Amino acid sequence: MPSKAVVSAFVLITVPANRSGDVVDRLIDEYSEFVVEAAAVYGEADVIAKVETPSVDQLHQLVMTKIQNLPGVQVTRTFIIIPQLHRIR
Amino acid sequence: MSAALAAIGGVLISAFASILAIQYQHQVTERNEHKRQALERHLSHYERIFVSARSVQDAVRDYRTVSDRVTDRSDPFLRQLLAIVSKSAYDYFFEVDWRHNPGMAYLDLKLEGKCMRARDLLIQWLSRPRIATGDIASVRVAGRFTRRSLSSVQSLKVGDYEELRIERQLLVTPAAGDTRLLAELDTAFTAVIVELKAVMAY
């Protein structure tokens, strides 16, 4: 787990099919401070981003005022990672 | 002599009055005949106005009923009802325009005025923005979703939820003065419908 981050979460984002690429690019370009990874995926969600913030407040702020306001974003689903059960190879 | 003159005068006056009465009667008959012919020729056109007016009134009443009862302004059904009002209003605008419906050119002036007043009220109502976007937050705890206000999300801590869901939704918001305008619309369309019914029953 990264040393600075206190709260890590996966954010599943629903966007219209043709906007997935734009959302991935903007997540990485504009919020690189918090967004560790972002990818367009097949399936229930359209984009999945892994984010790391210093606090849970900042996570909610990031999701509600930044990610949710990206053009085309319809729904965000945030899942906070349980630190004790988080492994990175 | 004067009695004879008076008698002649009386006869002339009564003859003149009879002529006037006959002429008036003739005009009434002609007007009725013209109305009958116009009606026969344009009955289908009047029916089109009637049907479109009924559709608008039904749609407005449905919207009004649901809008008053609904607690969730993002309910897609409400948006659908608003779309139905817009669609039926468009049909009505089309039908009360004499360029699209020649029946309007033969409609009684007063009734035409009522049709136009209903149209103007409808334009006034439709011109006010009712669709707004808004975010709705809900959290899943023990497998169940619960709606949360956006402001309360900030106070949530780690472990308070399994999933935080923020959804951008279209909200149908009532405009200022809607209640009065909807009532006026209903009255205006009732007048149009009742009078058109009378014309068609002629």
What does this structure look like?
The complex is a heterodimer of chains A (89) and B (202). Chain A has 89 residues and is α+β, with helices and mostly antiparallel strands. Chain A has two helices and four strands. In chain A, 26% of the residues lie in helices and 30% in strands. Chain A has a four-stranded antiparallel sheet. In chain A, strand 2 and strand 3 form a beta hairpin. The model of chain A has no long low-confidence stretch (mean pLDDT 92). Chain B has 202 residues and is α+β, with helices and mostly antiparallel strands. Chain B is built from five helices and three strands. A three-stranded antiparallel sheet of chain B has the order 2-1-3. Chains A and B meet through helix 2 and strand 4 of A and strand 3 of B.
Give a quick rundown of the structure.
The complex is a heterodimer of chains A (89) and B (202). Chain A is an alpha+beta fold and 89 residues long.
CATH superfamily assignment of chain A?
Lrp/AsnC effector binding domain/regulation of amino acid metabolism (RAM) domain
Number of domains as seen in the coordinates of chain A: 1
**Number of distinct beta strands of chain B:** 3
Give the count of helical stretches of chain A.
2
How many structural domains does the protein architecture of chain B include? 2
